[in-house]
TrEMBL record:
Residues 1-19 form the signal peptide. InterPro entries: Papain-like_cys_pep_sf, TPR-like_helical_dom_sf, Transglutaminase-like. This is Transglutaminase-like domain-containing protein. Keywords: Signal.
């Protein structure tokens, strides 16, 4: 009789100690992660706790959370986060949110949308009200796909996404020191030039463009050429160009009409009218003659089944492995890519080289936009990629990590580059056509430029300066986690 009682007592005592040990390992992991900043050691503790208690959702959750947010390994994290989702019988939002965010980081936007929708359904079935995060995140995910209709459909009132997609009017008043650039480029003797004015695109429309010079001798008229819009400026023969001209522009921008991703991409063939933008080698710094670069692009895009998937893989690799920073020296695009930092121009040229290696028509676009706080308007280069299914060029910002290629609101595209990406090109009629943004680097910088944005929201016009609107905060899911937030307690 004593023996029969003794064995169960030992078993219960052993089980109690075993469970306590798992909780202690979990608590140790929390301490290592949050208080001691030792994520690798914390991961070891979380793994041991999970091995001991595999049916508690917080155990795989903290493994996935550590891998994703601290060790930057979302590919490994997603397995554990999805497991924590399956074990989450309590209806806690943490496993749902982190799984969705991880899928987004992996570029699996459709899966992230599906998971977000399932999470909201699960919370409602548990008689819980989903937090506003889910609606804002769902709106964000649709925006990254370029589906602005659904982005607005799910965006809560006053949300960051809805504010970003609000129609706006932009006025640019620019005192351009024209003779400084013409002198530097040895064009002072010419009587007629053309300068680019903002492009006509589905997402931006030029309302007016005017020139006011310090004297009245310069005449101007609008002209379209090689996919760009120009103001043709002409002075009487034998007279001098004025030192300065005043360029006044007014535009309407509506990003709701913008397609951020192509419906279909295909390689260009020599008979295609846009083939030169898929094969020109100079503005890719002759990368198409670099076997090492071509091999690298082939390796990066190997898992893509279609041309569009290969393009996505190439651009995702660039965003993940190349960071905005100091310009580096290099004789080739591959050297730039390997060194890992550069400005928007470097992003653009590397992306052009990658996409042309896939025979995709692509060109650089130069424009102006507000970026800092306080915000002067600064030059910025992006891409336009040709979508064969729509016979349309669509914008893509290879530098934008958070926006997945969607251009920044209030950015105005001025000039679509020719296949060689020339800052100035001699037209067939003998007139020099100049990318206006280059005046910025030749004496007409931010101190000469006024850039006003009027945002239309909820049937009201709110004029704001270029400072960020303090009432509209970026949602938490696009902020870089610092401490990681509160962990599950048990």
């Amino acid at each position: 009789m004593k023996t029969k009682l003794y064995i169960p007592i030992l078993f219960l005592l052993h089980s109690f100690v075993y469970a306590q040990s798992a909780q202690e390992m979990y608590n140790q992991g929390i301490d290592l992660l949050y208080n001691r900043n030792r994520p690798e050691s914390a991961l070891t503790s979380f793994l041991k706790a999970y091995q001991s208690e595999p049916n508690i959702w917080s155990r795989p959750f903290m493994i996935g959370y550590t891998l994703k947010n601290y060790l930057k390994k979302p590919e490994e994290a997603i397995v554990y986060l999805e497991k924590s989702w399956d074990l989450n019988s309590e209806g806690d939002e943490l496993p749902y949110k982190e799984t969705v965010i991880c899928l987004e980081q992996l570029g699996k936007i459709d899966q992230a949308i599906s998971r977000n929708t399932k999470a909201q359904a699960a919370l409602k079935s548990a008689n819980k009200t989903p937090s506003p995060w889910f609606g804002e995140n769902l709106s964000w995910l649709y925006w990254t796909k370029g589906d602005t209709d659904k982005a607005l459909q799910f965006a809560p009132e006053g949300s960051w996404v809805k504010n970003q997609l609000a129609p706006r009017t932009i006025e640019i008043d620019w005192n351009i020191k024209i003779t400084k650039l013409l002198s530097a480029w040895r064009l002072l003797d010419t009587d007629k030039i053309r300068i680019t004015i903002p492009l006509d695109r589905p997402y931006q429309k030029l309302i007016s463009a005017n020139i006011d010079s310090t004297n009245s001798i310069v005449s101007s008229k609008r002209k379209s050429s090689r996919g760009n819009q120009f103001l043709e400026l002409e002075k009487p023969t034998g007279t001098d160009w004025p030192e300065e001209i005043r360029l006044q522009l007014k535009l309407e921008q509506n990003l709701k009409t913008m397609t951020s991703r192509p419906a279909k991409l295909r390689p260009a063939s020599p008979e295609d009218p846009n083939y030169s933008w898929a094969s020109e080698n100079r503005d890719g710094l002759f990368s198409l003659d670099d076997p090492e670069f071509l091999k690298k692009v082939e390796e990066i895009t190997a898992n893509g089944k279609t041309t569009g998937e290969k393009a996505e893989l190439a651009l995702q690799y660039l965003r993940k492995n190349y960071k905005y920073g100091e310009r580096v020296e290099g004789k080739s695009i591959k050297e730039w890519l390997d060194q890992g930092t550069g400005d928007c121009g470097y992003f653009t040229y590397i992306a052009i080289g990658m996409l042309r290696a896939l025979k995709i028509p692509v060109r650089g676009v130069y424009g102006l936009g507000p970026w800092n706080d306080p915000s002067p308007a600064l030059p910025h280069s992006i891409l336009e990629i040709y979508d064969a299914s729509k016979d349309q060029w669509f914008p893509h910002d290879p530098q934008s990590d958070q926006l997945y290629g969607v251009i920044n609101p209030s950015y105005i595209a001025f000039t679509a580059g020719n296949p060689k990406q020339d800052a100035a090109a001699l037209a067939e009629d003998g007139v020099w056509e100049i990318d206006t943004v280059w005046f910025f680097w030749n004496g007409s910088g931010k101190e000469t430029l006024s850039y006003t944005v009027n945002v239309k929201n909820q049937n009201q016009i709110a004029s704001r300066s270029l400072r960020s609107d303090q009432n509209i905060q970026k949602p938490e899911y696009i902020k870089t986690p610092q401490s990681g937030g509160p962990p599950p307690l048990k």
